[in-house]
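Troubleshooting: if your tokenizer reports a length mismatch, compare your output against this known-good record of 411 residues.
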Amino acid sequence: MGIEFLISTKYLRSNQKKGFVSFISGVSMIGLILGVMTLITVLSVMNGFHKELRDRILGAISHSYISEFGDKLDDWEDIRNSINEHPQVIDSSPYIQNYGLLHANNQSFGVSVRGVLPYLEINTSSILNEVDESQLNSSESNILIGHGLALRLGASVGDTITLLTPDSSLTDSQILPNYKQFIVSSIFDAGINEYDNSLAFIHLSQAQKIFSMKDQVSGIRLKLDNLFQAKQVTNEIVIGLGGDKYYGIDWTIQKSNFIKALNLEKQMIAIVLSLIIAVASFNIVSMMIMVVTDKKSEIAILRTIGMSPKRIVKIFFYQGLSIGLVGILIGVILGTILALNIETVVSSIESVLGFQFFPKDVFYIDRFPSEVHIKDIFMVVVGAIILVFISSLYPAFRAGKINIAKVLSHE
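Known-good structure output:
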């Protein structure tokens, strides 16, 4: 950088003595700091939301499931043993999935009924982590329902509720409902209304009787050591079992629209907040143009002693770039600190204001989870540097094109 950088730092110090130029310079730097800090914090919070929602959803649907065409799986014990031989499968559990109508206290709601083996289900689902295995056994007609469903039915632990299901043994013209009474043995909280309001668990053997499945199951749910390889592992297992008879669905397919919506939301927020950085960056243009105008006589002197226009351009380019880089650096530091402590900050604000930003009865999540990704910080820094680079070029080139004869004639 040489002498050009030294002159640019001298100009920076001299600008601090000039009120309006110094003010514009400060505004530009503060704008960059706020823009970078806000973007890093919001992206980290979005990452935290995505992870929290993903974990809660996967706790209900598992990483993937394997079934047979027709959704009735025979010899599931042997198939499960084969699945568990895959090195990336932590465990698996059989299930029966069907629909019914729950009735209690003159209230009826359609639900998704899942028959499970509790001692295996807890290895693939987090919903039943707080449930004792004895609360769901084959010898008793027990049922587990979600917190939201219990409120809608007005039911609590120990109450008797009725499950109505279609009798599949009859023809289409003779469809009659089966009904069976169950005792609510536990109420779970999945943390997501979709499952709290419409999901019920019964024992696998009870589901086999109700839905006339004999010894069959609907499929086998898998928990993998790497959820991001679910598609690849699921395909490998299906091929190993016999691809023409079985099929597998991983979580990215089950919730593809939801995942796309989350990613689109993050991208749109990033684009909108990037405008803050863009505005702050282009403030550098107006500030540097004022500096160039103020330094015309000094530029003319530098030119007369032999400094080339190219080197003049470098002086003012370094000056604009220095302001931008300092702002970006401070913004990254403050943004990272805020992102890592966002829950504490938000809790303090909520306690002062006396209300919650995300009430649990309205939103999926009632807190501000945060997960800082180096990739996001890198992209923010690179984008900000590019904008600062572009913003510093025009005033610098304008400084290099000043007509020194005209300037000196007015001195």
